[in-house]
Amino acid sequence: MYTSNEVDRVTISIPHSLALQSEAVRGELKISRSELFRLALERFIQEQNNSRLATIAAEMVEEYRGNSELTVLTVLDGEDFA
């Protein structure tokens, strides 16, 4: 739980249909509206971070494959290389 010094109050506007769906979900989960939106926002931010990391990793793979200085020792890799 957060103390009052650790939280910011935020006002948002969402479509009525989404509000109705969120009320149903929070009722099922027995959590407050604030908790539901906090959880949803945390999940969205984590997904964005994961997507950003995947993009960076894909770019690094191309950099690795295209840079002979980075791949010079791969000729030593054998079937038993872990």
Characterization of the model:
The structure is a single chain. Helices cover 63% and strands 0% of the residues. By secondary structure, the protein is mainly alpha-helical. It has a domain at 32-75.
Which sequence of SSEs, written as H and E, runs from N to C?
HHH
Radius of gyration over alpha carbons? 23 Å
Largest β-sheet summary: none
Query: Overall mean pLDDT score?
Result: 87
How many strand elements?
0
- For the termini, the CA-CA separation is 43 Å
Strand content: under 5%
Strand-pairing-aware structural class: mainly alpha
| Poorly predicted segments | none
Helix count? 3
Helix content: 55-70%
Specify the overall morphology. elongated
In brief:
The protein is built from 3 helices and no strands.
Secondary structure topology:
Elements (H helix, E strand, L loop, with lengths): L15 H14 L3 H34 L1 H4 L11
Question: Can you give keywords for this protein?
Answer:
mainly alpha, 3 helices, 63% helix, elongated, 82 residues
